[in-house]
Design a protein that fits this description.
Blueprint lengths: L15 H12 L4 E4 L1 H7 L6 E6 L3 H10 L4 E3 L7 E6 L2 E7 L1 E4 L8 E4 L3 H6 L9 E2 L6 E2 L4 H7 L1 E2 L5 H7 L3 H12 L2 E2 L1 H10 L8 H12 L5 H9 L3 H4 L19 H11 L4 H9 L4 H4 E4 L2 E4 L2 H15 L4 H13 L12 H10 L4 H10 L6 H29 L6 H8 L7 H13 L8 H14 L2 H4 L1
Parallel strand pairs: 2-5, 10-11
Antiparallel strand pairs: 1-2, 1-8, 3-4, 4-5, 6-7, 8-9, 12-13
Helix pairs in contact: 6-8, 7-9, 7-10, 12-13, 13-16, 13-18, 15-16, 17-19, 18-19, 21-22
C-alpha cells in the first residue's frame, strides 16, 4: 500500500532494531508500521523505549520473523488479540496484526477480527494523536485522522465519533484526562461533551483499571486541570465521589480559598511518585466532614484521623495493595505533624516523632512541604524553613544514633587474647582506633581479620600504649 500522510519526516526513533525488523518483514512480503504512542512521543521528542508496530502478518508469522531478529526474550500473552512482544536490549517491541474490534455492552474485552488494512486498524484507536503511523524505511507518515495537526494544536480529540469510542471502552475517558495532564494538552469540545454524556459508563470498568489510570494521571507533570475536569464532567461521581464535597468547603473565612483548590496545589507541589501524589490528593479528604465554625473561625478538628479512615475505604475500593494503602493512610493521618514543629521540641520529642513515623518519615517531610500553599510568600518560606529544621534535627539525631551503634570489630577480650595481656588502659586506644576506621568507612565492622592486622600495626607504632 502507499503512504499518503501529510508529511514525510526522518525516522522518529534511533533504534537499530527498527531497521532490522522493517527489512525482515519487507523481505517476507509483509507491511510493518510504527504506530500509536511510539509515533506520538517521537514527534513530541519525548523519551521512549517502547516500539509499537502494526502489520498485516498474523501472529505465527510475527513470531517467526521476530525469532530471526534474535530477541533477548519473547512473550505471547497477547497472541489471541494479535500481539506478540519481544525485548532487544533496552527496547521493548510489540507487533500487532491489523485488526478491528467489537465490544459487547459493559465488557472491556473486545471480539477481535484480524484485518489487512492499516487505515481500518488506525480507525479503531482512541485519539487522533495515537492514530498516526510511520513507515520505518522511508519515514513516510500515514495520518488519516489529522493527528499531526492535533499534536501541533495541543488537542486531545477522539477518532471518529467520540461517543462510540467511549462506549467501546469507557476507560478512554480517563485516558483523555491522563494524556491532557501528561502532555499539557486540552480536550476537544466534542470529545469533552461525549465524556459528560458517557460518564456513568465508567461504572462498568474494573476498579483496578481505574486505579492504574488515575495513578498515571496523578504522577503527570500538571494533573490539576485534569482533576478539575474529572469533577466537572461527572467522572469523579463514579470514580471517587469523596472528592466532590471538597469543592465549596472553604479553608477559612475567605470564600475563594476552598479545600479542592488547595488540594490541587498540594498535588502539583508534591514529588511525582504514586504514594506522594495519592497522599496529596487524599490528605484533606476528611475536611468536609469535620468542618466547624467557632468564634468566627473555621476549624477541621481531627480531619486527619477522619481522612485516614476515608482514604482506607477509597484505596480498598480501588484494590490497592496493602503496603501502598497503609503507607498512604499513614501519610494522611500524620500530615500535620511536621508543620506543628517548634524549635523547643526536645531531643526526646524528635526521637518520638522518628519512632512514630518510621517508614514514612522522608515522604512525610515532602508532603508537609507540598502542603504549604499560602498566597503570602513569607508564610510559605517560614513554613518550609520549619519543616526543613525538623528534618535536619532528625538527620542529626539519626546520625548520632547510627554512630553510637557502631562497634570495633575486636572487643576487649579479643585484644587481651591477641596480645596475651591482662585488662588495662592499653585496650581503649586500640579499640578507639579501630572504631574510627569503621566510622570513616575504611574498615568493615565484621572484618575481624583486617582488624587484627591493623591492631598489631597500631601497637607496633604506639609502643607507649603498652607501657601504660
Amino acid at each position: 500500500m502507499s503512504v499518503h500522510g501529510t508529511s514525510v519526516v526522518a525516522n522518529l526513533v534511533d533504534a537499530p532494531i527498527l531497521r532490522t525488523l522493517a527489512a525482515q518483514f519487507g523481505e517476507a512480503g509483509h507491511e510493518l508500521y510504527l504506530v500509536g504512542g511510539s509515533v506520538r512521543d517521537g514527534l513530541l521528542h519525548r523519551p521512549t523505549h517502547d516500539l509499537d508496530f502494526a502489520t498485516d502478518a498474523h501472529p505465527p508469522v510475527i513470531k517467526r520473523l521476530l525469532a530471526q531478529a534474535q530477541p533477548d526474550s519473547r512473550y505471547d500473552v497477547g497472541e489471541k488479540f494479535g500481539t506478540i512482544g519481544a525485548t532487544f536490549g533496552e527496547w521493548v517491541v510489540e507487533i500487532t496484526t491489523y485488526r478491528s474490534e467489537e465490544y459487547a455492552f459493559a465488557s472491556r474485552k473486545p471480539a477481535v477480527t484480524f484485518g489487512t488494512n492499516l487505515e481500518d486498524d488506525l480507525s479503531r484507536r482512541d485519539f487522533t494523536i495515537n492514530a498516526i503511523a510511520q513507515e520505518p524505511t522511508t519515514g513516510g507518515m500515514l495520518d488519516p485522522f489529522h493527528g499531526l495537526q492535533d499534536l501541533q494544536r495541543g488537542l486531545i480529540r477522539a477518532v471518529g465519533d467520540p461517543a462510540a469510542r467511549f462506549r467501546e471502552d469507557p476507560l478512554r475517558m480517563l485516558r483523555a484526562l491522563r494524556f491532557a495532564a501528561e502532555l499539557g494538552f486540552h480536550i476537544d469540545a466534542a470529545t469533552l461533551a461525549a465524556m459528560r454524556e458517557q460518564a456513568r459508563a465508567l461504572e462498568h470498568v474494573s476498579t483496578e483499571r481505574i486505579a492504574v489510570e488515575m495513578t498515571r494521571l496523578l504522577v503527570a507533570e500538571r494533573p490539576a486541570g485534569s482533576l478539575e475536569i474529572l469533577c466537572d464532567a461527572g467522572l469523579a461521581a463514579v470514580v471517587m465521589p469523596e472528592l466532590l464535597p471538597l469543592r465549596g468547603t472553604s479553608q477559612d473565612d475567605r470564600r475563594h480559598k476552598d479545600v479542592f483548590g488547595h488540594t490541587l496545589k498540594v498535588v502539583e507541589n508534591a514529588p511525582a511518585t504514586p504514594l506522594l501524589r495519592w497522599a496529596a490528593l487524599l490528605h484533606d479528604i476528611g475536611k468536609p466532614k469535620t468542618k466547624s465554625v467557632q468564634g468566627g473561625k473555621v476549624h477541621f478538628f481531627r480531619h486527619e484521623t477522619v481522612g485516614a479512615r476515608m482514604a482506607r475505604r477509597i484505596l480498598r475500593r480501588l484494590r490497592f495493595d496493602r503496603d501502598s494503602s497503609e503507607r498512604i493512610q499513614r501519610l494522611v493521618a500524620e500530615h500535620l505533624r511536621p508543620n506543628l514543629y517548634t524549635p523547643d521540641w526536645t531531643d526526646g520529642a524528635v526521637r518520638r516523632f522518628l519512632r512514630e513515623t518510621e517508614g514514612i518519615t522522608d515522604d512525610l517531610f515532602a508532603l508537609s512541604r507540598a502542603d504549604i500553599t499560602s498566597y503570602r510568600r513569607s508564610r510559605v518560606e517560614a513554613g518550609v524553613a520549619r519543616v526543613n529544621h525538623l528534618e535536619a534535627r532528625c538527620r542529626e539525631l539519626q546520625a548520632q544514633e547510627d554512630v553510637a551503634q557502631l562497634k570495633s570489630p575486636l572487643d576487649g577480650n579479643d585484644l587481651m587474647i591477641m596480645f596475651d595481656r591482662r585488662p588495662g588502659p592499653w585496650i581503649k586506644p586500640i579499640k578507639d582506633y579501630l572504631l574510627e576506621l569503621v566510622i570513616d568507612g575504611e574498615l568493615a565492622q565484621d572484618d575481624r581479620e583486617t582488624a587484627t592486622k591493623l591492631a598489631q600495626e597500631f601497637a607496633d607504632q604506639n609502643s607507649e600504649v603498652f607501657g601504660a
